Amino acid sequence: MDAWKRLACAVVLQAIEDYLMLERAEAREEIEEFLHSDWFSTLCGIDPDRLIRMMKEEDPNRGIERCEALFESDKFD
Known about the structure:
It is built from five helices and no strands. The chain is mainly α. The longest helix is centred in the N-terminal third of the chain and has 19 residues, at 3-21.
């Protein structure tokens, strides 16, 4: 994976991790705004609504594993 793709992946994974660990609704809303932003769509081709649904259904201790499966596809091209 190219360096820029690793960086994009790291940014998105950090947003996912933050979302799963935060309990305050305001903080989660900020992350949801990022996931719907032009910057997020530039970083990857993941559907933000699908990702948010996945995160809301996840156990915070396992959530990253399931969300990382999205990155195995070509969503970071």
